[in-house]
Amino acid sequence: KNEVEQSPQNLTAQEGEFITINCSYSVGISALHWLQQHPGGGIVSLFMLSSGKKKHGRLIATINIQEKHSSLHITASHPRDSAVYICAVMDSNYQLIWGAGTKLIIKP
Amino acid sequence: NAGVTQTPKFQVLKTGQSMTLQCAQDMNHNSMYWYRQDPGMGLRLIYYSASEGTTDKGEVPNGYNVSRLNKREFSLRLESAAPSQTSVYFCASRWFQGDYEQYFGPGTRLTVT
User: Fold this and answer.
1) How far is CA B41 from CA A16, A95, B38, B74, B83, in A?
2) Looking at residue A92, what is its pLDDT?
């Protein structure tokens, strides 16, 4: 079993829909990262959080440390949000353990 | 600031050939990383350098060597390329080993035939 599980693996939605991507992990962590990988391959860090909730524009990330679960939400989704979203957790050695990613397609 | 740069962007090698992937960052970061990304899998850490002068193995170090040339540069060498090393390679850096964001280079797409 992978230490970081993301769901769904693939998600297709219509423009404007509210999107939720989930991340569950089984190890003790110091922080959790959400990253975005564009179709061209570049990887960009979206959030790093260790508790509660963070918001940036239309993106919201939450984490529940007790349940070992995090969610990434996108409000008013747009085709330019189409990308692979990756969850990664930082273990006690400050190394990142990566999820396999969720491929999101937003149709106009 | 250019951030994290990688060269080359694409490379095709024959089995047994060697090559070095170059990575440089201009953010004065102390820690640098090499990952590989294969279809359907998360990024896997090959080697990292927590600070200038140190390097350590990651999850999948076999077949690779690294050099932390100075604070800015961290290179990855394939001594004898194998088809199993066909992958996309990402270099990343962050301020320190710890709760800091990682910044990624654009990637190198390597094919070994």
Assistant:
1) 29, 17, 6, 24, 17
2) 79
Cβ-defined contact of B99 to A48 (cutoff 8 Å): yes
pLDDT digits (tens, 9 = 90+) for A66-107: 999 999 999 999 999 999 999 999 887 778 889 999 999 999
| Count of C-beta atoms within a 10 Å radius of residue A32 | 25
How many CB contacts within 8 angstroms connect chain A with chain B?
49
Helices (H) and strands (E) in chain B, counts: 0, 11
**Residue-wise DSSP of A37-88:** E-TTS-EEEEEEESSEEEEETTEEEEEETTTTEEEEEESS--GGG-EEEEEE
The total number of residues written for chain A in this structure: 108
Q: Measured between CB atoms, which of A43, A90, A97 is closest to B90?
A: A43
User: Which residues lie closer than 8 Å to A7 by C-beta, 6 or more apart?
Assistant: A21, A22, A24, A102
List all residues 6 or more positions away from B95 whose beta carbon is below 8 Å from its beta carbon.
B27, B29, B30, B31
Note whether A73 and A54 are within 8 A (CB): no
Of the candidates A62, A98, A83, A87, the one whose C-alpha atom is nearest the C-alpha of residue A11 is A83
Distance from B68 to chain A by nearest Cα, in Å?
A: 18
pLDDT band at A1 (very low <50, low <70, confident <90, very high): low
